[in-house]
Amino acid sequence: MSHAPAPAPASVPTHCPYCALQCGMNLRRSGQTVEVVDRDDFPVNRGALCGKGRTAPAVLSSRVRLTGPLVRHPATGRLEPAAWEEALRATADGLRRARARHGADAVGVFGGGGLTNEKAYALGKFARVVLGTSQIDYNGRFCMSSAAAAHGRAFGLDRGLPFPLEDVPHTGCVLLVGSNLAETMPPALRYLTELKDNGGTLIVVDPRRTKTAEQADLHLAPRPGTDLALALGLLHLVVAQGRTDEEFIRERTTGWEDARAAAMAHWPELVERITGVGVPQLRAAAAAFCDAPNAMVLTARGPEQQSKGTDTVGAWINLALATGNAGRPLAGYGCLTGQGNGQGGREHGQKADQLPGYRRLDDPLARAHVAGVWGVDPDSLPGPGRSAYELLDALGRDVRALLLMGSNPVVSAPRAGHVEGRLRSLDFLAVADVVLSETAELADVVLPVAQWAEETGTTTNLEGRVLLRRRALAPPPGVRSDLEVLHGLAGLLGYGKGFPTDPEEVFGELRRASSGGPADYAGISYRRLEEEQGVFWPCPEPGRAGQGASGTGGTEGTEETEGASGTGGTGCGEPHPGTPRLFLDRFATPDGRARFVTVVHREAAEPTDAEYPVVLTTGRVVAQYQSGAQTRRVDELNEAAPGPFVQLHPQLAARVGVAEGEAVAVVSRRGRAVAPARVSEAIRPDTVFMPFHWPGAGRANTLTNPALDPTSRMPEFKVCAVRLERPEHREDPAHPAHPAHPERATG
Ligand code: SF4
């Protein structure tokens, strides 16, 4: 009996390739391309998309993307088209040569927060099993590792939001710290609008009056790098006014006395002097937060991207705990993850110190479990390696060859000029990407890989909701998936098995590797993800207890993680329903109690002085995404956001002598960037803002400070000292004097 081929579905339900909201969308085939069609059934965005998501198919077109491998020709020094076999062999040879000459740790691997769970898992396994190197980390280290560390310290478990976004409109007050949702994930703004429609209060903490801050009932604009003091000052007022929740503190927390004492040393007038936020505003914010029957604290990159990011997030968590706003319905602390798979990407093994399932690499039981799944000796697994910036800083010195997937550190790393130099100094660099990014331009081998709409895989959004992205069309001829790249390289390096190319098969292995760990995916299958609107982890296999039950887990910044947290197993063979809300019965610490962590204010790593008297803070704009490798290829987005700029207050502009649209030079101890001035009263007079999406003369990360948080190893993107100058004529941003990559042209 013959079977007619099944008709192609009219449209394929999937998710956006960009940010951590992971908006649902339908993709409808139109010839050889796809177009985005509204998908109203996905609850997170309910059909709404920002311009980036709506235009994402433009990057699928062959006009802007790589469609065949490139290998740098030894004679011409140019990247020339090559066959896949040649490119893979050159890559395997480059990695093998560095290892033979300098040892396994001379080979580095750098991943990305946009990689699917399957790719992140396979990349971590490839580094540790095939290359035997400890030197792997990823750009998600730049995104929210301080919040991850603070979550681990306080709650014993790191998941961005411990509750679904649908809870936000039903709390009484949201204290939003260092997040500009209106530009970074516009469809999420409706949760705040609905909060206000329901009578709730919105307090926004941001040095700039952003589009999100404009929605606030109360906007606090502290000097960048001082929100740790701000949180302590609010906690001081809460204590002084007798608004703490003593029963919650007594029953569900530890460490209060020391944390309380630290807060009492930050009295309002002192906090006003440190932050620039007036005492009346502090009092109003503390009152609004405490008057609400339930409240939430939501943080993002603002408090995290500091050399004291873990303590800063910890201070905001302390405020939530002291007021009883944690571990109960419609209240809590959460972090708004940034990158598309920022959450899942840090759970499955591409982070320097972690194994799949959010297990710790230095935990003998965790090593034994994962080594068992991988079929290797636990003793063969390397230990923890360097964090992202430290790895980039070691290139060309200790680390001589690098395999890089889904990241563009020439634009996105702090002190980017230095990082670019380190990349150039490598003996060998291979980059897998969809376009010829600024980092790929430096590579010895460029491997063109498939994109989100061309392959199936899972991501985990900011709520901890695991989602299925479905393949809607085939990649162009000459393009392979990242899993195929790893399969090919592993084969050439002597591992013919263990690196399947089918994402579902990889996910099956990931489930086993994560089973019993803090981020337990064992009960999640592609079939469930097709039938449900995502599944929240932890989701153990049927009959098994909730997360951390094996006692083998642990998240960054914690000594241990064990015990369930109200997530319990079904115990009856029924599929586990997943865990939308964490910590309702207990926190994931050994004693089930949340931990206050004693924190005190300290200065940014680079305070302003007479030579560099202004603070630079960096961030994003709505029409571009991260390093812009994809979004800068979309005409519509470039029309909306054509290039970098320097936002500064009219008083500062007058002092420097620049007018709206004129070029202004921003100079830090690490370099100089030039971009048009955008004069605005929406920013403090002592602060300038630059978006970081662009390379070249206006590259914001030329200026940023790589000072690292001691726990999370996250760089201080949000604060550095600069001075402003009127640029010389040759520094017109339209005609940069120093082209980005003059000596390594591409063929
Ligand atoms: Fe995509 Fe984020 Fe925009 Fe949603 S908000 S469409 S996930 S970039």
From TrEMBL:
One of its GO terms (biological process) is respiratory electron transport chain. SMART domains: Molybdop_Fe4S4. Keywords: 4Fe-4S, Iron, Iron-sulfur, Metal-binding. Residues 545-556 have a biased composition (Gly residues). It holds the Pfam family Molydop_binding. Residues 542-579, 725-747 are annotated as: Disordered. Residues 9-64 form the 4Fe-4S Mo/W bis-MGD-type domain. Gene3D superfamilies: 2.40.40.20, 3.40.50.740, ADC-like domains, Dimethylsulfoxide Reductase, domain 2. GO terms for molecular function: 4 iron, 4 sulfur cluster binding; metal ion binding; molybdopterin cofactor binding; NADH dehydrogenase activity. InterPro entries: Asp_de-COase-like_dom_sf, MoPterin_dinucl-bd_dom, Mopterin_OxRdtase, Mopterin_OxRdtase_4Fe-4S_dom, Prok_molybdopt-oxidoreductase. One of its GO terms (cellular component) is membrane. This is Molybdopterin-dependent oxidoreductase. It comes from Streptomyces pacificus.
